[in-house]
Structure formats: C-alpha cells, structure tokens
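Re-running the complex after MR caught last week's input typo. The corrected sequence lines follow. Everything else is unchanged.
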Amino acid sequence: MIGTLARDALLVSLAVIAFGLVIGPVAIARGKREWIPLSYAAIYTNFLLVTIATVSMVVALVTHDFSVAYVAQVGSRATPLLYTVISLWGALEGSILFWGWVLAMYAAAVVWINSKRPGNLVPYAGTALLGVMLFFAILLIGPANPFGVVSPVPADGPGPNPLLQNHILMAIHPPLLYLGYVGMAVPFAFAVGAMLSGEVERDDWIRITRRWTLASWAFLSAAIIAGMWWSYEVLGWGGYWAWDPVENASFIPWLTATAFLHSAMVQERRQMLRLWNLNLVVGTFVLTILGTFLTRSGIISSVHAFTTGTIGYFFLGFIAVVLISALVMVAGVSDRLKTVGHFDSPASRETVFLLNNLFLTAFCFTVLVGTLFPLVAEAFRGVKVSVGEPFFNKMTLPMMVALLFLMGVGPALPWKSASPDEVKHKLLPPVIGAVLFAAVGLLMGIRNVYGVLAFACTGYAVVANLREFYIGSAARRSAHGEGWFTALTRLIAGNRRRYGGYVSHIGVFFVALGIAASSSLRTEREATLEPGQSVVLAGRTARLKSVWGREEPQRSVIGVTLEIMNGDVVSGKVEPRMNFYPMSQQPVPTPDVKSYAAGDLYANLQAFQPQGKNATVKLIWEPLVPWIWFGGGIVVLGAIVGIWPNRRRSAA
Amino acid sequence: MRRTMFTWSLIAAAASLAFAQNAPSAPPSDPKQAGAISPEQIQKEGKSAAERSALNMRTANDTALEAMTTAVASELRCPVCQGLSLQASPSELAQQMRGLVKDQLAEGKSPDEVKAYFVSKYGEWILLSPKPQGFNLLAYLLPVLLVVGGGAFIWVLVRKWSAPPVTESNPSSTDSAV
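Corrected-run output:
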C-alpha cells in the first residue's frame, strides 16, 4: 500500500525533475523571467515528492510492513523503535533514498533563500541541482529501488546489521555525513551557475558559494569526528581512525573543501585564483561522487560497503558525465578568468594561503592515491596489495605538521605586505608556545619526531591564533573602553568570518594534540580476572566486580562490571559487554569508556568463563582522546560563528 | 529459568569462541589466499601456549623485542579485519599471528625475514604498506612529486607576482591558476 504510494511519488518526481530541467534553461534562453518560478516550483514539488517517499519508508519501517523489499531486508519486530527508524540509512537502497531527500532539501533551500537575487546565477544553480537530482531519482527507480514488492510477505525480518544498531552515534553520524557530503553539490551548482551565467567574471558568486561550502564543511567535519567516535566506541580495538577506504572517502573532499574555504578569501580580497577556485569547487563535488561510488559499489571492501548490483556502473557513468561537462565549461571560461597577478610582497597572508592550498591538495591527492592504489595495482600488476596505516602515516604526517605550522603563520601575517620588522614582531613570539608545548610533549613521554613536532607546531599556532584575539580585544578596549569580555564578543561579532575561522583553528589544535598524544603514548594491558581481583594501568586500578548476563528483546548481553578504585574508594566503573544478535554468529564487542581530562580508560571484554568464574578484559589508557571530540565541537562552533547571518550593527 | 539457561548457554558458546573477532570481518575470499595459514597451523608452527608464556617470561624484560614485535606487527595486516594491523586488531587470529612474529624475532630472524615469511604465506597483500619498489613506487613518488612540483610552481609564481611592475600601464598577464 504505502510502498505503492512511495513508488508513484518517485515516478512523478522524475517527470517533475525533467520538466524543471527543461523549463529553467528555456526561460533563461528566451529571456522569459516570468517562467523561472516554474523551475523553482519544480524544485519545491520534487522536495515534496521525495519527502513523501522518505516518510513512507519510515512509516513502512515502523509499522513493519514487510511487503516492502527494503523493510524485509533490514527490519525486524524485535528492533527498538529508534534503531528501526534509523535503519533508513542502514543499507544501500535506504541510504540512496535518504541521500536523494537531503539533496532535494538542499535544492529547495538554495532557491528559497536566494530567489530574490537578480541575474541568472540562481536559476542555473537550481537547474544544476536538478541535474544531480535526476541521477538519484533514476537510481531510486532503477538499481536502488527500495520499494520493491515482496511476495509472499514474510512474518519478520532479520533486523539491521548488528554493528549499526549497537550505538546511538549511528543516529547522528550518517545524517551529518549526508548533510556534509550532499551539501557539496551546492557549491558545485553555484560554480556551474556562475560559468553559464557569465557571473564567473565577477567575484560576487564566490561569496555566496563560500558560505554554502562552509555550512556543508561544518556538517562534514562533525560527521567525520562522529564517525571516529563511533569507530572508537563500537569496534573495540580502541582506535578511531584506520585509513579505511570509507573514512578516506569522507576525508578526501573535506580536504579540498578546506582548501577552497581558504583560497576563496584570496579571490575575494585580491581577485586572484579564480580558475583555481572553480576547479576546487568542481573537484570537491566530483570527489564526493567518487567516494560514494567507491563505498556503494562494493569495489572496495570496507565497513560501510553495502555491496552490490549494477549501481556501480551508474555511478561511473555519472562521474564521467559530470567530469566531462565540467571540464568543457571550465575550458570555455578559462580565457576570461586570466587576471593580472600581483603580490605586494612574498611575506604576506596570500603566500601562506598558496602554501596551505599546496599542502591540502597534496594531502588530498596522497589519500586518494593510497585509497585507489590497490585497485590500480591489481589492474596493472595482477597482484593484490594493501595500502594501510603505515603508508598513510609515513606519507601524510609531514604534511599535517606543515599545515599546523602554517595555521600559526597565516593569521599572524597581514594581507598584502609585511615589513621585515613586522615579520619579526609577528612570527617570533609564538616560538615561545612551540618550545613550551614541545617540552610538555617530551615530559608526557612522547619521543617520536612527529609527535614532538606536532606538539611544537600546535604550540606555535595556538599562541599565534590566541594573540589575534588578544590584540583585537585590546584595541577595542583602549578605543571604546570596553571590558575584556565585551571587547572579545564584539570583536568576534564584528568580523565573524575571520574570528570564526580562528575559533575553528583552535578546535583543530585540540584534535591535533589528542591525535599526537594518543598515537604516541597509548598503553594497554590484558588480564584475566576473577571477581575481586584487580589490574593496574597508567596509575589507575580496575577491580572486577562481577560477570553478568541479561536478555534484551533484540539481543542477549554478557557484560562485566569493573570498578575503578581510588585507593579504597570506588571512583567510577566501566561495563564492557558483548552483545549477541540472533542474525550474527559473532558477538558484537561493546567497549566501555571512562573519560578523564587527561585521557580515557577504555575497557573491552575479550572473553569469559561460563558461570562467570573469570573474565579476560583488555584495558587501554588513551591519553587526550576526549580532546579530539571536544576539539571537533569547537571546529563546528567556529564554522557556525562564520555562517551566522550578519545583522547590520549601527557603527558605534 | 529458561532465560537464564539460554544466557549461560550463550556464555558457553562465546567462551568456546574464546574471543570476539573484530567485526565486521569477512573471511578472505581471494582464492590466492587459499594457501593461507589457519589458526591451528599457527599454533602448530608456533609455540604452544605454555611454551610461549615461558618464552614471554624469559623475555619479560626484553623491551627491545617487544618494541620490535610491535613495529613488525604494525606493518602486517590482520587477514580477517578491515585494514587493521596485527598490532591493532583484537581478533584472536591476529593475536596468534602477533605471537608468531614475536617467536620468530626471538629466534633471531630479522624484521625483514619475518615479513618475508608472511608474504610467502599470504602474498604481498599481507603488507600494510606496499613494498617501495617497481610499480609500487608510483604510490610513494606521485605525492612527493606533487609537493615538490607544486612548491616550485608557487615559488616561481610568487616571485613573478611580487616583482615590482615595470610600468603601471604594462602589467604582465599571467594565468591565475596555481
């Protein structure tokens, strides 16, 4: 029933998209401005129709309508409501549906917010988004149709993949990821709009594009951090990043988007790098589609790979279409984008942005090469090879350290030109931070070169960034006689983009310290304990209190309770478990984490004896890992500051 | 009562598994790996648990061996995981293979010989970073080339852009691309 409704909605949406794709360009070509609202109407109608299909799917999942193929695949009567709802994105077809819905929403939001803007930029951008939408609508009707009919209707289903119903972050990480990933279609659409409408020769479009990019970037940043957290909380190995192809797929476009957020400022300020920025925007979008192809086609095995079928060919075809048409468009406008390059001095923020773009692009390229290399090697040599953590660490750590250093140099140097005196005055004081942080790192016990360098460069950049807040607030204080707090908040409110950027930098520093410390200083201990016995790790004592079991509707749980002792006083507890799902032969390890400011005590249940005689637990001391999650929050906060609409304040 | 029994029968089942593997693991499906070693073989070829723990006791102070084991185990892939190393993976097979690494190092084999042993059993696939030779050099050199070439390009560009214009009316037109 509801499946039919949804199928019909998707079919109608295909027609609506086709109509919108025709009417928009025709209206522009014939100069009929009054027809353009028809194209917008198509975008809104499409959003409505895809919303109907998506809501139908959620209803079908919640009501256990197993006549719908997707529900029969991922649903189960025993699964709790929350995990039933979020199994919407737990397998291929549902995730494509959700993807299409997010895209339809973005398209509607873009035209809704910008419809008053004169010129053809927005109509063309809307058309470009409809073009992308067409691809997903075809997928939903063809190879990724979630509304197939199952007959006879099964009484119950297997339930979602156990890994995807084991942690609440599964409700948070995927939507954020889609919002970030799909959102990169918007800057691409504006780029297409700018090229087709001729606005590409002015630099106004870059402002609006940067804003949308920043929004998607914030979602993508949050999604990557949430994904790391999920991996840490669920997979039981105590790590948060394994250079898994899918992690890489989310990270690769993040790097080019980050590069664009910086280089766009050069274009706004100096009317340079126009062609380069265009390429970054197009490249970021293509990389998101490539990432989707890699992870959804089953060509690369990964935690996230929902295999299979013909969908890979559709993606390859789409990538080819996007690449070729984008290349043709860029080639068409490139002559008009040649600008007079002029720097006042090599010692300027512009130069730092160029280097920032070099390292971010190289970083992106390295991760891309590493991710694709197994495929390439198999094709050319016929030999299976692996490209994993040692490769990525070796290749990217120098770039990460360089980027951290540049994060200190860029904010310190002024635009245009810095006199030698100014360079000295700006770039020398942060060295104190570098020395201090390196000393702290060494005292903590970090001995590897990159760990110490990461601490030093972070220290340098921390001082440089905080100094910007200090100098600005101090100037306001003496000019307006404001208190420190007022001066600081008004400083940020007065130039949100700039200071929001510095706030995000500070978030990155927390992340960097967390990664440097946890990857250098992690200690672990495995012990088989009987109740009452304890084990000491990193100065903390954990005592096994009990081994227990309990039944839950969708699973059986075996767990242990470990008390964390502070002398004779119990100061906390961790309860690592194993969850047994009927559809999975292997138990799903469910570690438990006790967080302190200095790090996490991470406990994983490895094995246990029948009747609870003893249990083997692995305890890991993870220094500064909570700083990564905290820093991720600060990064997003900075982006929100930067996006926040600027209300005109009467000049005081 | 029945529930409790069910629970404890699960416990028994899990205990026989001894240890949760790092899900979501798929067994290696590559036919080339058909000759790969099984856990049983590892136990046969390696030391028995008792022997190994005795060995561990003897070398308890030998932090150098432990460090070397960690280094080698970080370079080898856990065959049943998603790209985790023997060092990182909590799966039983990986732990046994790590024990094998340690045993071989303790017997005096060099890290390269230990890696070569695993390559002979599993193929190149077992190495987490491809050997930097022949075709594989591409993966290592391309990023370096990009950084060096891009750096040189930026150097030239910045110098050119920063040069004082000869006359205001004759600006040198340059491509804006980086």
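None of the earlier attempt is carried over here. The radius of gyration of chain B is 26 Å. Confidence is low (pLDDT under 50) at residues 1-50, 168-178 of chain B.
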